[in-house]
Design a protein that fits this description.
This protein has 562 residues and is mainly α. The protein has 21 helices and 14 strands. The strands form seven sheets. A two-stranded antiparallel ribbon has the order 1-9. A hairpin with a 2-residue loop joins strand 2 and strand 3.
């Protein structure tokens, strides 16, 4: 996609950083703009925003890898590069190519330059030319800061363009800002632009340019979720999903399932990179000489470029989690309905036990006749979780799961659980959420009845575990004995429902870059380092005592700043 690369060269604010020795190292060969230079030409809008997207390509792979390799769902292989292995081991005693904070600040500095120099008053035919692009860049900056703070913890908050080395040094020596304060700042910064329409540039290469842009309401939900503002988070997610112009529903067409009662035929229609599932992404180049090409396919899959030596494999932990689910089939005839459960033995592949999402999106096959002394691996691995065309920033099912997380923490566990098991619509709410919670939730769980119907809504657990609405083993947690008050029951349920949501995030979002940060977010919320340390240290099936001890100190959760 040479278009991106060419446009990057057009827009270059100073502050593209190239070294790990210093957070900022200015590069004299880059194009510099005058301090008072103003972006006034309508074409500046496209060129500059695409230039920012081009810089986001440099962090795209890292967003996935930093959020996944340090979690518990992947294991590095002997073929993995040394930096990847050290990343998985939380060993930062040496320089690591995945620890390049300067690339994040390159995006941020470009955003800052645009926001401070674009002429937002410019109008044509009564329309403010740069209004949509201004909102887009605000969202790019907020999203990049969220990724930066998740990875590094306390970081310098810089909102003005840095045009000299002196300015850069002074900015980076300022007091660093916490993740919570980063979130608070950008909630206020982007909330006024929540309803701004996206630019309409049409197709760029083979891409729909509208999917390059971060959905502001979903991002506001994430920021509020990390900030502990759960009711606000739920509202932003709800409003994004229920937008009357483009509502985002969860239908039953995207799932893996057994199509017969003998559990011998598997239908794998499940996809995480379909046009309907993927809401936004960072476009990547198809060829190296066009710009930045994603290396994730060569890390995850067997390719000619890596001589078919993949660098990561699914961990014992994700296989165990997947196999521990109970697959349910609701078998209906003209006269009766029966509930069947898949067996847990007798399959050719153990990954066919339980939830089917892992099995449907992962394969490992031997190549017959391969010379054992060949430079090529005789095994072929494929993970259908990524695509070389772009790195996903938002997809619909994960937004629903974060919405469930926010609802639960807002004191609405029944509503959150309904998203997992039944699907969120008026009919299901009436059946599975009691009147007290419905009154408390009010419009937070109110969706258009003509669009969000029972027939067109699916519980997310059904994507891999069958007809979850009929599954007697997948139930809302209930205390063994009656508790003193209604709120006591809610307080009992919330952490247990949260555990179910986090498990579902793992089943649904495995290998996509979410897992480590999902564990981190809950661990910080609960003040319990073990919530992260335990699963990560057990990724291989047995506890790595040294790794667990390391991760029980929250300071070790973050990459070190230079």
């Amino acid at each position: 996609m040479k278009y991106i690369y060419k446009l990057v060269c057009v827009f270059c604010a100073i502050g593209f950083f190239t070294s790990c020795d210093d957070i900022l190292e200015t590069d004299s060969e880059l194009v510099m703009y005058e301090k008072d230079n103003t972006l006034k030409n309508p074409t500046d809008s496209v060129y500059s925003v695409m230039g920012i997207i081009g810089k986001m390509q440099n962090i795209a792979d890292r967003v996935v890898l930093l959020g996944e390799i340090r979690g518990d769902l992947l294991k590095t292989t002997d073929a993995a590069n040394s930096d990847l292995k050290r990343l998985a081991d939380f060993d930062f005693s040496q320089e690591n190519k995945y620890n390049s904070v300067s690339d994040y600040y390159a995006v941020i500095n470009n955003c800052n330059y645009f926001l401070h120099h674009v002429d937002t008053t410019l109008e044509r035919r009564g329309h403010k030319i740069f209004k949509a692009e201004y909102a887009v860049v605000k969202a790019f900056r907020a999203w990049t800061y969220l990724q930066l703070a998740q990875a590094y913890g306390n970081v310098p908050l810089i909102t003005k363009p840095l045009l000299t080395e002196i300015e850069a040094r002074e900015a980076m020596n300022q007091q660093r800002t916490s993740l919570a304060d980063i979130c608070a700042y950008f909630i206020n910064d982007i909330a006024p632009y929540a309803d701004e329409e996206l630019p309409r540039w049409g197709g760029i290469g083979s891409h729909d340019s509208q999917k390059f842009f971060i959905p502001v309401k979903a991002l506001l939900g994430d920021l509020c979720l990390w900030a502990g503002r759960y009711e606000e988070a739920a509202r932003w997610y709800h409003d994004y999903l229920s937008d009357r112009d483009e509502p985002i529903t969860l239908g039953s067409n995207n799932r893996s399932y057994w199509y017969n009662t003998e559990f011998k035929g598997l239908v794998a229609g499940y996809s995480v990179v379909s046009n309907t599932e993927r809401l936004s992404y960072i476009p990547m180049e198809a060829r190296v000489f066009d710009g930045v090409v994603s290396d994730i396919p060569n890390i995850y899959n067997s390719t000619r470029e890596n001589n078919y030596y993949y660098q990561v494999i699914p961990s014992a932990a994700v296989k165990t989690l997947s196999a521990s689910q109970v697959y349910c089939m609701e078998y209906k005839t003209d006269t009766e309905t029966d509930t069947l459960y898949a067996p847990t033995t007798g399959f050719n592949d153990d990954m066919m036990i339980g939830d089917l999402r892992l099995y449907s999106l992962y394969s490992l096959n031997a190549v017959g006749g391969q010379d054992e002394y060949s430079e090529y691996s005789n095994m072929r691995q494929n993970m259908g979780k990524i695509t070389s065309s772009g790195i996903t920033t938002y997809r619909r099912t994960m937004v629903y799961l974060r919405y469930a997380e926010a609802l639960n923490r807002a004191g609405l566990p029944q509503s959150a659980f309904a998203i997992l098991k039944y699907g969120i619509c008026a009919d299901n709410i009436a059946l599975y959420v009691d009147s007290i919670e419905q009154d408390k939730a009010a419009d937070l769980i109110d969706f258009d009845k003509t669009i969000f119907t029972k027939e067109g809504t699916t519980g997310i657990h059904s994507f891999g575990s069958g007809d979850s609405q009929a599954n007697a083993y997948y139930v809302m947690p209930q205390p063994a004995d009656s508790l003193a008050t209604y709120q006591d029951t809610v307080d009992y349920q919330m952490p247990l429902v949260e555990d179910m949501i986090i498990n579902e995030m793992a089943l649904e979002g495995a290998f996509e870059g979410y897992r480590y940060y999902d564990l981190m977010r809950v661990a910080l919320r609960r003040g319990d380092a073990a919530y992260l340390a335990d699963p990560v240290s057990k990724r291989n099936g047995e506890t790595d005592d040294n790794l667990r001890q390391l991760l029980m100190n929250t300071n070790n959760w973050y990459l070190p700043l230079p």
